[in-house]
Amino acid sequence: MRRTDSVTPLGIFLLGLIIGTMGWVYWRSTQSFAGGDTLLRLQSSGVVRIGYANEAPFGYLDSATGRITGEAPEVARVVLRRMGVRTIEPVVTEFGSLIPGLKANRFDVIAAGMYITPARAREIDFSDPSYVVGEAFLVPRANPLDLHSFEDVARHESASLGVMGGSVEHGYAKRLNVPEQRIVVFPDYPSAIAGLRTGRVAAVAATILTANDLLDKLGSDEIELAQPFHDPVIGGRPVRGYGAFGFRADDDAFREAFNEHLADFVGTHEHLALVRPFGFSAATLPGGVTAAELVGPRRGPGN
User: b/e map of 1-10 (b: 16 or more CB within 10 Å)?
Assistant: First the structure.
């Protein structure tokens, strides 16, 4: 018996339909991973990846419990839960690698208390801020070089300043004329404190909340806050830091939904009770300031 194989028009149609459907599903999955439908993906899976830099009190690993905590992760948990996303997968990286990591899809949102600046806003988008704080210097006991501001460091020819890589403090130092050769960049604050103890730097710049947290953990009187301290003045105005959450530039739907729930939460009794253990209070509320106000014209000059 001779067998005759033939392909019918219906078979061709069905094969094309299957191939087309598989291609569409693949395209949609790659688009979702790239960020175009991040909100839909997160709500569908219930899982979000957050990037943090292990910097207390903003976002860090509590070694006693193994829990990712701090102002930003805890606020993010509440906001994301209200959006239908309940599981957080933390991704730790150095602070200076947070923006590159977000853009490379290593995580979906930066939850590290990152300050909003025009320079950063040229690379990513920000939620509206969840807090505002000032700056501080950590110095050896009795502050031997009498450093109370970035300007003091610039004027003192033998003073070196420690900053964390990728931080706004590095930018403040440069804009206030601290020579680059006297700015020492560390990957994290424990390294900066080690540099302060060994005399590699005369002061370490950080937010006042970070500085207070570091002092609490040191449990030693060999390092102290520079008192008084004068916040940097740039463009004729004292500069304060507004912290927020970072999003990829094509994640508008995700950011807008996050912002909507964030606005309903920040400033409530529940919010203040949640962030109080990390040193935040009604005094650190952003007061209705928006990301758009802090960034200025889109793609404008940065800090």
Answer: eeeeeeeeee
What pLDDT score does 2 carry?
Answer: 42
Same topology, domains 38-132+240-295 and 135-238? Answer is: yes
Task: State pLDDT tens for residues 242-271.
Answer: 999 999 999 999 999 999 999 999 999 999
Provide the CB-side half-sphere exposure for 97 (13 A, CA).
Answer: 15
Cis ω for the linkage preceding 118 (within 30 of 0): no
Prediction pTM value: 0.77
Where does 35-155 have alpha helices with state H?
A: 38-45, 71-82, 98-103, 118-121, 150-155
May I ask the CATH class of domain 38-132+240-295?
Answer: alpha beta
- Say yes or no: domain 135-238 is CATH 3.40.980.10: no
Pair 119, 171: CB distance under 8 Å: yes
In the chain, domain spans: 38-132+240-295, 135-238
Tens-place pLDDT, residues 135-146: 999 999 999 999
